[in-house]
Structure to design on (452 residues):
């Protein structure tokens, strides 16, 4: 199953490497949103809860773009039918798609975090980096699981571009709450109470629940 | 097939609802702190509990559908979620009225239960758009079931997250001790909850019967058509 998932993931990465569709779009989009937030809020630098809110909102909106594109190539070129005809475990398709989305998100953050620090952040990013990386990684795993599931759910509907944000945004509210609250003290100038472990624990729980749930029910989504 | 026992159930619902309203208005004492407006509690909280129960029940029925492939379970799940969304609207409206009366604002953000309920309501509001944007009926049932299961698992997670983030201001009447309600209020509340549950089940059965009858009618019409 892991080997199959690896093959599908390599195929997705090869497509992404040649077309350069998702990741550059997500990165550009995130920078545009930072600029919008600068003019929308009328501030040059952000700190504390405002900074963490803007960062996570932007990452989330960029995630919606990535989720929208996740099954596009497969559907247009008949890749889904090919994968369904092959004698493979359907779960490996989910694992590959979630891993691809996770990689896209990490690449997005390689661009978005420095851009955010440069454009808007009022405190030093480097000081916050170790904790922030842990939060980002756990949040990304959750976003990748839910994103892959929602992408598969929406792939066969008529209005999928509408269905993806409608379904995804309420489902990831807990991620925003946890990641945003965990990031807030890292970005504030005044000493704030640290509750990092609690929020990381919650993110880990969220990741576990949605990973297990997706693995359990993904079989029913791609079946014909 | 679905209509069996509907009459007895309806009569029981009417009795329970009348009893609940009688108790609310003539038996339960006015709240010392909030006065008469507190009585909306007997509608708001049972509505919320029944709606959440309906969402979870919809998820469980969806699991049964995926397990058995029996379309009647999909219909049951669909009707349960559909009804719960309607009740959910009632929860938000009565909640806002109560919030306005007792806290002075229509909407209170540092109020975990209200906020979590809104998020869950928004998520389930997508159930119908998702369902009806899929044309193939078999696939429609399968995707709707997957959604119902995911959303059902999301309900407790979401409550945990919102509660962790906010201060506790909600009157937590159903906490571990079973609440600090005096006996008369508790009795009224339990009867109201019973009435609301019966109402939900009756409406659910009624809707199932109606949908089933419509389908039968369609089938019979189709049979008649070539003859004429």
């Amino acid at each position: 199953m892991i080997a199959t998932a690896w093959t599908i993931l390599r195929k997705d990465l090869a497509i992404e490497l040649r077309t350069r569709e998702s990741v550059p779009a997500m990165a550009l989009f995130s920078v545009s949103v930072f600029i919008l937030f600068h003019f929308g809020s009328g501030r040059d630098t952000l700190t504390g809860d405002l900074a963490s809110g803007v960062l996570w909102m932007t990452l989330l909106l960029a995630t919606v773009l990535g989720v929208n594109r996740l099954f596009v190539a497969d559907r247009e070129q008949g890749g889904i039918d090919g994968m369904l005809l092959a004698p493979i475990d359907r779960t490996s398709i989910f694992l590959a798609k979630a891993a691809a989305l996770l990689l896209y998100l990490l690449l997005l953050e390689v661009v978005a975090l420095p851009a955010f620090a440069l454009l808007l952040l009022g405190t030093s990013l480097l000081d916050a980096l170790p904790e922030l990386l842990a939060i980002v990684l756990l949040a990304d795993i959750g976003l990748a699981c839910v994103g892959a599931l929602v992408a598969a759910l929406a792939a066969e509907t008529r209005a999928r571009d509408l269905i993806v944000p409608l379904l995804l945004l309420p489902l990831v509210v807990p991620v925003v709450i946890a990641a945003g609250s965990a990031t807030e003290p890292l970005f504030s100038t005044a000493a704030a109470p640290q509750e990092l472990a609690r929020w990381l624990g919650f993110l880990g729980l969220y990741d576990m629940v949605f990973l297990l749930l997706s693995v359990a029910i993904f079989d029913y989504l791609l079946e014909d | 097939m679905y209509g069996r026992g509907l009459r007895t159930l309806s009569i029981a619902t009417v009795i329970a609802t009348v009893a609940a309203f009688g108790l609310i208005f003539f038996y339960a004492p006015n709240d010392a702190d909030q006065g008469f407006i507190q009585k909306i509690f007997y509608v708001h909280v049972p509505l919320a509990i029944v709606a959440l129960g309906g969402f979870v029940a919809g998820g469980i029925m969806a699991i049964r559908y995926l397990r058995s492939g029996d379309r009647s379970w999909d219909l049951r799940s669909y009707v349960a979620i559909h009804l719960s969304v309607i009740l959910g609207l009632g929860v938000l409206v009565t909640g806002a009225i109560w919030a306005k009366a007792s806290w002075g604002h229509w909407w209170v953000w540092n109020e975990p239960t209200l906020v979590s309920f809104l998020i869950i309501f928004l998520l389930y509001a997508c159930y119908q758009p998702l369902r009806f944007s899929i044309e193939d009926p078999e696939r429609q049932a399968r995707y709707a079931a997957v959604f119902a299961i995911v959303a059902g698992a999301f309900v407790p997670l979401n409550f945990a997250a919102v509660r962790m983030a906010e201060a506790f201001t909600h009157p937590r009447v159903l906490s571990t001790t079973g609440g600090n309600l005096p006996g008369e209020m508790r009795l009224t509340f339990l009867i109201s909850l019973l009435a609301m549950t019966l109402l939900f089940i009756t409406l659910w059965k009624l809707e199932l019967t109606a949908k089933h009858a419509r389908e039968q009618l369609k089938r019979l019409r189709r049979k008649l058509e070539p003859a004429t």
User: Anything to note?
Assistant: Residues 6-28+35-170+181-213 of chain B form one domain. Confidence is low (pLDDT under 50) at residues 173-178 of chain B. Chain B touches chain A at residues 66, 119-120, 122-123, 126, 129-130, 133-135, 139, 142-143, 145-147, 149-150, 153-154, 157-158, 160-162, 164-165 (CB under 8 Å). The longest helix of chain B spans residues 183-224.
